[in-house]
Amino acid sequence: MNTRYDLNMEVPPREAVRLLYISKSRFGGDWRSVPHTHACTEMFYCVSGRGQFNIEGKLFDVAPDDLIIVNPRVQHTELSYQTYPLEYIVLGIDGAEFLFNEKDLGYTMLSCGMMREELLFLMRMLLREIDSRADGCEMVCQDILEVLLVKIVREAAVSMRIVQPPSKSKECAAAKRYIDENFSENITLDKLAEIWETDKKTPAIVEFVDIAGLVKGASKGEGLGNKFLSNIRNTDAIVHVVRCFDDENVIHVEGGTDPARDVDIIDLELIMADMEMVERRIERANKNAKGDKKYLHEAEVFQSLLEHLNEGRSVRSYECEADDMELIATSDLLTIKPVIYAANMDEDGIADYENNAYYRQLCDIAAREGAEVLPICAKLEAEIAALEPDEREMFLEELGMSQSGLDRMIKTSYSLLGLISFLTCGSDECRAWTIRRGTKAPQAAGKIHTDFERGFIRAEIVAFDDLRACGSMAAAREKGLVRSEGKDYVMHDGDVTLFRFNV
Questions:
Q1: 18-169: CATH homologous superfamily?
Q2: With contact defined as beta carbons under 8 Å apart, do 440 and 476 qualify?
Q3: CA–CA separation, 413 vs 204, rounded Å?
Q4: What is the dotted CATH code of the domain comprising 237-413?
Q5: In angstroms, what CA-CA distances link 162 with 15, 16, 41, 322?
Q6: Closest-CA residue to 118 (of 85, 90, 152, 142)
Q7: Burial, 456: exposed, middle or buried (Cβ in 10 Å; 0-12, 13-18, 19+)?
Q8: DSSP alpha helices (H): ranges in 238-319?
Q9: Rounded Cα–Cα distance for residues 291 and 312 (Å)
């Protein structure tokens, strides 16, 4: 039997619709959520986490598998819940505009749970192609984009039309060129010290604590048992190093490499410890409810959480109202802490980590619970750490790496915890100070000294990029780039700050 299908349809001109960019982002408190517009269409696919989208001044709840389509020149921005950081893939598409059922509405939100596997597959293919920069990747990306758009139009209540992209002015072109050339520049303490001609530099600090001793039954006292769990309880986040390589000379305590099993062992012990804590919280709430009925709701919240934990799922994956999550956060639970999975590979594996089956398995696990995955090679990191700074730079260059795994771990941890840095500088010292995103100027001043917060008058602030461009604080003042900010000012990452106070 032979079945033939003839195609007789109008196809849009090749490359009439173009992929301008694609990125995968995870909200870590390290970017400013500012309403903005684009000359192109943007398409957001929520992979994990929870948050909101502000579109034309209206707030919309966002959950995993939501697809947000925003047409050109429609104002929008994304917001995330810190407890469940929003992770999404965004595409910038030129030459296309979407039409929705709603009259004159330049945006829509679609629930695409039924298409999750297809959408993620296509988007991840795009990411891999662009990241590879292999010959012909632009053509492959164009093909994938067209398939993706057809799938969305076919399955969703939307249609698409070809539009002429807006012309760019010389000024816009120059601005774009500058951003393209400089977007990856880091705010460095070294540059600040160079401007102020000082040798003393005090960087921001992220402290890592090596905790060992977790085995099956730790929640029941096996191994280091409760000591191990209490050590974890004192941390802000968990970095779980997971073996992702095979080597018969390196014996695994469980007899072989299996990332899913290793993650499950840790998770189960932490979940069982949390169940014990939650049970005590329920018991206390029920007792207090006899004298105050407000505790009845608390008991209900934690009872529901207990049922979730009984299914072998972490607090991180528990979905509830924001107020209830704030209540849950008052309990000292282990599986509510944000997690980074460090995928530890050998030298061969790290060279092509995206094709490492163990790494991909770990990524799937992390996606389900909104966790980060960071590919590392502990053996290489040990070699890098033993080198002098100049040798280290050359070694990384030879490996084709811009920074070590440890540096990437520090930055990822910083972002995961919602931390930013402001900078103080002078001829005696340049220093970075760590604060939570959203901290106001008086509280930031208090990080230096309590007197600074108590007697706060104002903060004189210049953006690091402006200071770097001017070359000195005096030049920045002359150009009017040094701002005077009051008590309600929210500090931004990279603010170079002088606090004025009177005690």
A1: Regulatory protein AraC (2.60.120.280)
A2: no
A3: 12
A4: 1.10.150.300
A5: 11, 7, 11, 41
A6: 152
A7: buried
A8: 259-289, 295-310
A9: 33
**The whole model's pTM is what?**
0.52
Over the range 460-482, which residues count as b (16 or more CB within 10 Å of their CB) and which as e? ebbbbebbbebeebeebeeeebb
The lowest-confidence range among 83-92, 100-109, 471-480 is 100-109
Q: Under DSSP, is residue 118 helix (H, G, I), strand (E, B) or coil?
A: helix
All structural domains of the chain with their residue ranges: 18-169, 237-413, 418-501
Give phi and psi for 89, each to the nearest 5: -110, 135
Residues 197-216 pLDDT 10s? 666 767 767 777 777 655 55
Cα–Cα dist 502/499, whole Å: 10
Query: Which H or E element spans position 216?
Result: none
pLDDT at 419 (0 to 100)? 85
Distance CA 284, CA 215 (A): 30
The model's pLDDT over 474-493, given as tens digits with 9 standing for 90+, comes to: 888 888 888 889 998 999 88
Helices 389-399 and 378-385: crossing angle, nearest 10°? 150
Q: 399 — alpha (psi -120 to 50), left (phi > 0) or beta? A: alpha
CATH class of 418-501: alpha beta
Give the position of tokens 């604080």: 473
8 Å CB contact between 459 and 499 = yes
